[in-house]
Amino acid sequence: MEQPTGIEEIEERVALVDEAVRPIAERPVDISDPDWVTGMRQGPAPMDEAGVRAEAESVLRALIAVYAQGDEALRASVRGLFSRYTSFRWATHLPVEPTPEGFRQRLLHMSAVDQGSDTRDELLSLRDLCADARTAGIDLGPILREVAELSSREDKYGMGSMHDILRGAART
Question: So where are the chain's domains?
Answer without folding.
Answer: 1-93, 97-172
